[in-house]
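Teaching assistant's notes for section 4

Start the section by putting this record on the projector. Ask students to predict, before seeing the second block, whether NAD(P)H-dependent oxidoreductase will look compact or extended. Collect guesses on the board.
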Amino acid sequence: MKLVVVSAGLSVPSSTRLLGDRLAAAVGRQTPVDTEVVELRDLAVEIAHNFTSGFPGRKLAAALDAVTEADGLIVVTPVFSASYSGLFKSFFDVLDKDALAGKPVLIAATGGTARHSLVLEHALRPLFAYLRAVVVPTGVYAASEDWGAEGLDGRIERAAGELAGLMSGLSAKAPARAGGFEVVPFAEQLAALSAPSVRGR
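Reveal the predicted structure now:
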């Protein structure tokens, strides 16, 4: 399965990229994935040109294809003015409107203070719901004081387990029958998602 991490971090090194890497590693511990990272910092000029020309440059086109073809996404943004960054939003504005329909997505964000933690619920979750993605229940926010804290590791593992469960359910179950698809009962899908949460309590 293909996992794509979209990181909107601006600095090098970036805490946003670090959080994305830790989430991807946690998913990889739970299910086999081939991980690709899309650094939006490197695509800023091509994203801007896409708005004025209507056509993506070579690197941007490759990034858009990677996101479209992924079996699951981890999206991570720094918080600016109590919301996602403009670069982050611009990338998803140039993505095809149907590219994320039905795709499992784990939302995450970084910021200087815990006061911005609700950005996951009031900004990121509505954005990806609008794009018709399947957003995992647990979002991960990391403030400056969270790095090295026990609670962050627990949230990372829980969210990664939810994403891995959705990715495995969608890809492994689909070709189970020749000439059609096996429908996974909703109760089974809920059980797969809730099992890691119960163990984590």
